[in-house]
Amino acid sequence: MFVASGSGAGAPVSNPASGGSASPVSSSAGLPAGGGAGLAGTSPVGVMSEGGSGAAGEPASAGAGGAGAATTGAGGVGATVPSADCAPVWPKPSTTTKLSATFEVASVYDGQGQRFVGAGDLGSGSQSENQPPLFELSAGATLKNVVLGSPAADGVHCLGTCTLENVWWEDVGEDAATLKGDSPAQVMRVIGGGALHAADKVFQHNGPGSFIIEGFYVEDFGKLYRSCGNCKQQYARHVEVRGVAAKSGKVLVGVNVNYHDTAVLEDITLCAGTPKPGICDRYTGNADGSEPVKTGSGADGTTCNYAESSIHD
């Protein structure tokens, strides 16, 4: 595995011995500007850079276990938040980096618009529930200005409170991102970004705590968010979805009534000209691995909370 430590734009990749234990980063509602100089520093083993014409990044010298030059910066993600007409500007990375092992983020990692794809054990492109992720975030970590291409394995795993800012998935693998951890106080925030082509779920909530999704664009998906319906350990989970634009999906949120989940949805745009997804489905979850039973859908003022006026066509 690889460990990224440090904070701020362009934090270099360091080897696992360097650690990194910055305090959790509190997020703001706006998207970062991105951009800046390219990455410089040591390229870890298993990271292979491909081409690129972004802003200059100085070649890195190979350190212990190093494998050549660092990637050049992409000059910023260059994407915008979803507009009311559902026409987001998708990022166009000039650099693609292949990961053959999970990239661990200890504090803050700013990818400056690079695309990352899986290779080797991370490159099967399957829908297996047991795949490792491309990125694993320690409690309190932030991942920002990153594009996940295809194959993306199991996307991003958060081991506790975490923030994903301006992260884009070009083709969701098994899941785009999963909140694990075991603290009821943990919060996963997704700010900006977007995802395409999720055969099942985009965001999976397995641990306890809260999940917040703001200013996100999603297209061609099964569920935007699902509170785990059949995990061995079950909890009360809470989700807030605000300022999201959705196109060609089945349902935005799936939650478990019997575990006292709650969902709050505000300012949702359902893109015109495509089948409209459901807003909130309610299930009876279980801890034995069987398929959870859907028991209802729509606002009920207890589990699924939203006003019809906050859902826009």
Write a compact overview of the structure shown.
The chain has 313 residues and is an all-beta fold.
Description:
It is a single chain. With 313 residues, the chain is an all-beta fold. It has one domain (2-11, 42-312): Single-stranded right-handed beta-helix, Pectin lyase-like (Pectate Lyase C-like), CATH 2.160.20. The chain is 0% helix and 41% strand. It has no helices and 23 strands. It has strands spanning 2-4, 13-14, 47-50, 96-99, 103-105, 108-118, 135-137, 141-148, 156-158, 162-169, 177-179, 187-191, 194-205, 209-214, 217-227, 237-242, 245-256, 262-266, 268-270, 278-284, 293-297, 304-305, 311-312. It has a 23-stranded mixed sheet that branches. The termini are far apart. Mean pLDDT is 78; it is low at 2-81.
